[in-house]
């Protein structure tokens, strides 16, 4: 940012007259003092306003004023930096050669006042439009919209956030100048050399601070904090007594080693009596096997206990054996687990294992390789043991994963052929955009199909669905084993990528999905931060939108598992049972 600073003696440009885009002197003494204090750049103000207004355009999910204020401030600061750099370049390489430059003080002051007032007015008008857009998105999802008057607070918060970021940048810039001044006085370096050295020193120190101290420190603190939560138990959760559950008195995996999410998983769900009442036919107690991080000292030992638990509970004699690679903390979607057991009337074995203390969003940033390795170990060991059973009697081997669990699951396979040769079906829900296999399928989708609603090889092996209607098998042959990705057009987990900062993706070039606003456009930098903000509330929207898939997992499971004799009435019955159970279990990821 090109502004006046403390180390003026290393600035070789003349300062006798005010410059457009720089710090402009105003006639009123109070305004002059305020302007000197703020040291605002007119070109920066104009670009900051442009970026702020871009950030008010619709994103994937409805946002309240607090979220919008944060994202607006970040984008305004980016725009301010761009504007000051642009203004400096224009002055240095174009205007300084003009005879009429610098402008008279009166004209410069007029331009300054005009740009500032116009920026305020345009921002207020855009806030009104933004509130209407937010109500439009909320309406698409059946959520309550915001009021225009309440949304005006966005402007004030964005001003504070943007100001804080610019102030931080100025501190770094002043540090560069201070270091350059010391180098000039001590070593008699040339001004450009000293300035370059100062920039390099501050950059290295900043990166060391962020990467070596802040990131690792935050990671360590987060790991400690979530490990403490991992040792706790949710209210109402008690140790199971059924031998079919890990953590029971008969289990090789002690109850106190399963972790917070593991204890939730094994203690919940309907027993044989509950399943019989829901389905109207005699059921058996379902099997739930789980190993927590503290169940054994390393991953290999945990897998040994998982296999021992599967053998102890008789999992290889059940109708269906489902491998569930988990999200960061070891979370398993309770709705999905219960849906599987209801569909098969308890004749199931579900197996999962924890690989981290951290929630999905932290694991996504820091533990993606660990997630893939954990999925590879779990699926590989269970499949290896499953192969030892007689082919005629061994259970159907299926894989379920949600969110980061899909990334862990994909880590076990290299290709679609590998999946088909290993398991009898896969259901992956809400896959992150960084998923390797998912990304390859999207990239190689059939010509003429969209990124948000893709088709691969005419749906012969793998399919993508947004709702239950997409899962109806009426578009040609679908070979078994089936592979199904369920993804919403409004799910930021599916569509977020660092590439959004610089490249408009196909899904923003194509017609929108059913629950994405057609008013959403792509803007450089801005869209990246907008969708990043959406991630924080990805699951906080009504069922069937964003990262909240609700009972849609039931339809996906029926599609992939293909239970014999299943009818739409059976789906309705199970969905009713799931709706009755909703809210009784399942903490957030």
From TrEMBL:
- Species per Swiss-Prot/TrEMBL record: Rhodococcus oxybenzonivorans
InterPro entries membership: Alpha/beta-hydrolase_catalytic, Alpha/beta-hydrolase_N_dom
Name the source's superkingdom.
Bacteria
The Alpha/beta-hydrolase catalytic domain extends over 287-573
Q: Which Pfam families match?
A: Abhydrolase_9, Abhydrolase_9_N
Protein's UniProt name: Transmembrane protein
What keywords does the record list, in alphabetical order? Membrane, Transmembrane, Transmembrane helix
Q: Which residues form the Alpha/beta-hydrolase N-terminal domain?
A: 56-269
* Stretches that traverse the bilayer: 37-57, 69-90, 111-131, 151-169, 189-210
């Amino acid at each position: 940012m090109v502004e006046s600073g403390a180390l003026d003696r290393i600035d070789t440009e003349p300062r006798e007259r005010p410059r457009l885009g720089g710090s402009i002197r105003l006639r009123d003494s109070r305004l002059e003092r305020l302007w000197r204090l703020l040291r605002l750049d007119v070109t920066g103000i104009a670009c900051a306003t442009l970026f702020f207004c871009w950030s008010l355009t619709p994103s994937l999910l409805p946002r309240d004023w607090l979220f919008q204020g944060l994202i607006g401030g970040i984008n305004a600061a980016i725009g301010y930096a761009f504007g000051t750099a642009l203004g400096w370049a224009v002055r240095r390489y174009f205007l300084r050669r003009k005879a009429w430059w610098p402008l008279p003080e009166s004209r410069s002051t007029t331009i300054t006042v005009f740009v500032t007032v116009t920026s305020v007015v345009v921002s207020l008008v855009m806030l009104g439009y933004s509130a209407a857009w937010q109500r439009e998105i909320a309406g698409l999802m059946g959520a309550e919209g915001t009021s225009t008057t309440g949304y005006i607070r966005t402007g004030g918060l964005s001003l504070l956030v943007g100001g804080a970021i610019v102030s931080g940048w100025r501190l770094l810039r002043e540090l560069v100048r201070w270091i350059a001044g010391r180098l000039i006085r001590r070593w008699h370096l040339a001004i450009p050399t000293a300035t370059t050295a100062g920039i390099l020193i501050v950059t290295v120190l900043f990166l060391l601070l962020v990467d070596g101290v802040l990131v690792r420190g935050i990671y360590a603190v987060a790991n400690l904090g979530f490990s403490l939560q991992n040792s706790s138990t949710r209210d109402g959760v008690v140790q199971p007594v059924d031998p079919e559950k890990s953590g029971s008195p008969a289990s090789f995996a002690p109850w106190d080693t399963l972790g917070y999410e593991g204890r939730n998983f094994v203690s919940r769900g309907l027993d044989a009596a509950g399943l019989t009442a829901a389905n109207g036919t005699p059921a058996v107690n379902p099997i739930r096997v789980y190993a927590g991080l503290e169940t054994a000292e390393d991953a290999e030992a945990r897998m040994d206990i998982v296999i021992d638990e599967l053998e102890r509970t008789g999992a290889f004699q059940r109708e269906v054996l489902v491998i569930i690679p988990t999200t960061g903390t070891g979370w398993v979607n309770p709705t999905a687990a219960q849906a599987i057991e209801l569909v098969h009337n308890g004749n199931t074995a579900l197996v999962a294992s924890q690989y981290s203390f951290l929630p999905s969003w932290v694991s996504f940033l820091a533990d993606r390789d660990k997630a893939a390795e954990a999925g590879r170990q779990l699926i590989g060991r269970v499949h290896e043991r499953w192969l030892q059973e007689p082919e005629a009697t061994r259970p159907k081997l299926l894989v379920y994963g949600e969110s980061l669990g899909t990334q862990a699951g994909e880590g076990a396979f290299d290709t679609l052929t590998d999946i088909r040769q290993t398991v009898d079906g896969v259901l992956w829900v809400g896959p992150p955009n960084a998923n390797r296999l998912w990304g390859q399928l999207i990239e190689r989708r059939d010509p003429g199909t969209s990124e948000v609603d893709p088709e691969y090889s005419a749906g012969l092996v793998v399919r993508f669905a947004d709702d239950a209607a997409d899962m109806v098998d009426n578009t040609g042959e679908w070979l078994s084993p089936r592979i199904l990705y369920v993804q919403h057009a409004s799910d930021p987990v599916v569509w977020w990528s660092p590439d959004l900062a610089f490249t408009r993706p196909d899904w923003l070039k194509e017609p929108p999905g059913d629950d994405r606003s057609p008013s959403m456009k792509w803007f450089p930098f801005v869209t990246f931060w907008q969708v990043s903000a959406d991630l924080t509330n990805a699951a906080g929207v009504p069922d069937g939108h964003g990262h909240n898939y609700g009972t849609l997992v039931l339809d996906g499971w029926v599609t992939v598992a293909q239970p014999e004799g299943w009818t739409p009435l059976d789906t309705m019955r199970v969905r009713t049972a799931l709706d009755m159970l909703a809210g009784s279990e399942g903490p957030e990821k």
